[in-house]
Write a structure and sequence with these properties.
This protein is of the alpha+beta class. It contains 3 helices and 4 strands. It has one domain. The longest helix is centred in the middle third of the chain and has 11 residues. The chain is globular and about 30 Å long.
C-alpha cells in the first residue's frame, strides 16, 4: 500500500476514524497532538465507528512497525476521547 499525505486522508475519509500504518510524524520538535505532527501514512482501516477500527485493527497492523489512530473530523473543544 502507498503512503498518503494527511490532507488526502482527510479528504478521502471525512469525519472517520482512520488507522494509519507507518505514520510519518515529521519534525520531532513540533509540539502538539499526533494530528498536528502527522505528515503521511498508510491507511489500514477506516470507519465512522471507532470500535470497528479497534476490533479489526489488530489484524490490519501486522507487518507495520508502528500505527496510530486518528479522527479526521472536527473535535468539539471540551470533548475527550478515551483510547
Amino acid at each position: 500500500m502507498k503512503a498518503l499525505p494527511i490532507e488526502q486522508i482527510k479528504l478521502q475519509y471525512p469525519d472517520e476514524w482512520v488507522l494509519v500504518g507507518n505514520p510519518n510524524l515529521g519534525d520531532k520538535s513540533t509540539v502538539g497532538s499526533i494530528m498536528k505532527r502527522l505528515v503521511s501514512g498508510v491507511v489500514l482501516l477506516h470507519s465512522k465507528d471507532k470500535r470497528e477500527v479497534a476490533y479489526k485493527g489488530y489484524e490490519a497492523r501486522k507487518g507495520y512497525k508502528s500505527v496510530t489512530l486518528i479522527f479526521t473530523g472536527d473535535v468539539p473543544k471540551k470533548r475527550k476521547f478515551w483510547l
